[in-house]
């Protein structure tokens, strides 16, 4: 069980970095993840004999769903680790990649928090020049250092150590998240044929730029 809740009785010291508005990408990811978890919980309940799906992800399962919500958890990670907003997108890509490689594995309330802290920590190690170590992420995430180390190894092997995210893939996921935000706000998104779409695979290819420009666009643009 995660040792934190929405009202943390033992918070970490305040980040000494200058405060800035929480990136909008965190709110969008929270929305997408909450909808995913709700859908998967329904699938699990409706499965044969009430059988819990997603056995491959059971190493990430807690005894019960954590008290802290997904939005509060993402905000906590951002507040204390000061990782770049791009890390949250790449962390989401890792989770999406993992469940596609292991069909039947569902992201549910029992595992979503551990998946998030593990994937975001890995993304920070790949993207950010400076990042905190596993022990600090464990404290922020409400797990022990030993557990987070174990989850990191498990996550890496489940991904076959494939942590590469091309600029085209990164941009596609950014577009997908932007469309999710627009549709949540009641704005209909259509492709050229006039058919509504929200699948990552349906996003049209656009020009490729380097990862730094994408990180900047997330910080300062639509998803910031």
UniProtKB/TrEMBL annotation:
Q: Which UniProt keywords apply?
A: Cell cycle, Cell division, Cyclin
The GO annotation for biological process reads: cell division
Instruction: State the species of origin.
Output: Tagetes erecta
GO terms (molecular function) for this protein are:
protein kinase binding
Asked if the record carries the keyword Cell division, the reply is yes
Q: What's this protein's name?
A: Cyclin
Q: Which Pfam families match?
A: Cyclin
UniProt lists the family membership as follows: Belongs to the cyclin family. Cyclin U/P subfamily.
């Amino acid at each position: 069980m995660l040792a934190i809740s929405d009202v943390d009785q033992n918070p970490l010291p305040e980040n000494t970095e200058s405060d800035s508005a929480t990136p909008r990408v965190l709110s969008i990811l929270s929305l997408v993840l909450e909808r995913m978890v709700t859908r998967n919980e329904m699938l699990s309940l409706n499965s044969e004999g009430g059988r819990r799906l997603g056995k491959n992800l059971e190493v990430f399962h807690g005894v019960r769903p954590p008290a802290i919500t997904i939005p509060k958890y993402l905000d906590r990670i951002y507040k204390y680790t000061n990782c770049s907003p791009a890390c949250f997108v790449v962390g989401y890509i890792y989770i999406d990649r993992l469940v596609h490689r292991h069909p039947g594995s569902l992201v549910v309330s029992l595992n979503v928090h551990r998946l998030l802290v593990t994937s975001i920590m890995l993304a920070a190690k790949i993207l950010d020049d400076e990042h905190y170590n596993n022990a600090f992420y464990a404290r922020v995430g409400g797990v022990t250092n030993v557990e987070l180390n174990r989850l990191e190894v498990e996550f890496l092997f489940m991904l076959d150590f494939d942590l590469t995210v091309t600029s085209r893939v990164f941009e596609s996921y950014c577009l997908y998240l932007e469309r999710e935000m627009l549709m949540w706000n009641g704005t209909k998104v259509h492709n050229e044929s006039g058919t509504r779409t929200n699948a990552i695979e349906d996003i049209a290819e656009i020009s490729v730029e380097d990862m730094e420009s994408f990180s900047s666009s997330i910080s300062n643009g639509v998803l910031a």
